[in-house]
Amino acid sequence: MAIRVLHLLRSDRFSGAENVVCQIMKAFSQDAGIDMVYCSPEGKIRRALQERALPFLPLEQFTPAAVRKAAKQYDATMIHAHDAAAAVTAALATKGTLPILAHVHANHENMRVVSAKSLLFRYCAKRFFHIFWVSDSSLCQYRFARSVQEKSEVLYNVIDLDDLHRKITLDPEEYAFDIVYVGRLSYQKNPCRLMEVLANVKTQLPHVRMAVVGDGELGKEVLCKAKELQLTENVTFMGFMKNPLKLMSMSKVMLMTSRYEGLPICALEAMGLGIPIVSTPTDGLQELVDDGINGFLRDQNDALSDCLVTLIREDAIRNQFSDNFRQKALQWNDLTIFRETLRKQYESI
Angle, nearest 10°, between helix axes 265-273 and 161-168? Predict the structure, then answer.
C-alpha cells in the first residue's frame, strides 16, 4: 500500500517554500510507493500546480477543521507540514491521529524569541515525528532549539541543474541588466533597501541597470522609493515572472538585502547559473555564498554597493566568481541524497 503524503501549506501563492514542495513532488512522481498531493488555500497557486501537472487539494479555509477534512478526504497516511504555522495547524487538526513531518523553510524573527509562534511550535512539536530545518541558523537560532534537537535535521534545498538550463531555452526574449533581484516585495526581503543600495551604485555607475522580478505587499512603497531616489531610468520592475531564469543568466550579479531567510531557491538558481551574489549576511546565504570567492556578504549599504560596482566593472573578477559558483553548484545539488533523506522519513512512520 502506497504512503499518501499530504503537503500542507498556508500560502495560496507560488514562492520559495511552495517551489520546494513542487520539487519534492516532482522528485517522487515516478515512485509507485509514495503518492503526494499539494494542499493549501485556493489561489494563484492552482495555476502553478497545473503547469507542473501536480495534484491539488484546495482548502476552504486554513483552519484545523478544514485540514482535518482534507486529510480524511485524501486518506492521508501522513502530513508533511511546511513552515511553523502549517505544522501547528496540522497538530491541532489531527490531535495525534496522523504522523506529522514539520519542515521549517525560514529563520523567522518571531521564532528566535519567546513569542506565540515559537511557543506554539514548541508545544506542538511533541506531535511531530521529525523536523526538517532548511538551514543551520534556522535550527540553532530557534528559541527552544534544545527541546526539539533530538528529532531535528538540517535539510538543504537543492535544484535540478539540467532543468534549470532547459528552462532558459524556453524564453525567446533578450535582456541586458547589470543587477537582478528575484523575490517577493515583502518585509522579509527588505526591498526598499535594494533601492538605497542601487542609489549608491548610481553615484559611481550613472547608467547602471537593475531588474526587480517579483510582486508583493510592498510593491507601491518600493516604486515610490525608486522615484524618490531618482532611479526610474535605472530600475525596471518586471513584476512576477513565471520563468525569470534567462533574465538572471544575462545579468551580471544578484543583489539580496533580506532581513531573514531560509535557503532561497533564487540563490540556488543564481549559483547554478554562475551569477555572483551580493547579499546581507543572512541565514542560509551565509552557507551558500563564500565571501570573496563566489560573492560578497556585507552589512552596510556602502559596502554592498562597492561590491556591486567591483563585480560590474571587473570582468576578470566576475568571471572567476562565476566559475567558482558553478563548481559549488555541482557539489551542492545532489538530488539523490535530497530525495533519499525525505524517503527515509516517509518510510519510517
Answer: 80
Whichever domain contains 291, its CATH number is 3.40.50.2000
Q: Are residues 148 and 179 in the same domain?
A: no
On whether both 271 and 225 belong to a single domain, the answer is yes
Distances (CA, A) of 249 to 229, 291, 304: 27, 21, 21
Q: State the total domains in the chain.
A: 2
What phi and psi values does residue 178 have, to the nearest 5 degrees?
A: -85, -45
Write out the residue range of the structural domain in which residue 273 sits.
Answer: 161-332
Residues 114 and 172 in one domain: no
Over residues 181-215, the pLDDT tens digits come to 999 999 999 999 999 999 999 999 999 999 999 99
The number of C-alpha atoms within 13 Å of 335 and in the hemisphere containing its C-beta is: 12
279 is written with which cell numbers?
547579499
Burial 316-348, CB ≥16 within 10 A → b, else e: eebeebbebbbebbeebbebeebbeebbebbee
User: The pTM is what?
Assistant: 0.92
Strands, DSSP E only, in 140-276?
A: 152-154, 177-182, 210-213, 235-239, 251-256
| Residue 287 grid coordinates | 552557507
- Domain check: are 313 and 342 in the same one? no
CA 226 to mean position of chain CA atoms:
25
Q: Please state the length of the chain.
A: 349
Whether 1 shows a pLDDT value over 90: the answer reads no
CB-based contacts of 227, cutoff 8 Å, min separation 6: none
Give yes or no: residues 67 and 199 share one domain.
no
Residues 127, 92, single domain; the answer is yes
* φ/ψ of residue 2, rounded to 5: -70, 145
N- to C-terminal Cα separation, the chain: 13
**Adjacent-strand bridge partners of 133:** 104, 154
| Cell numbers describing residue 163 | 532543468
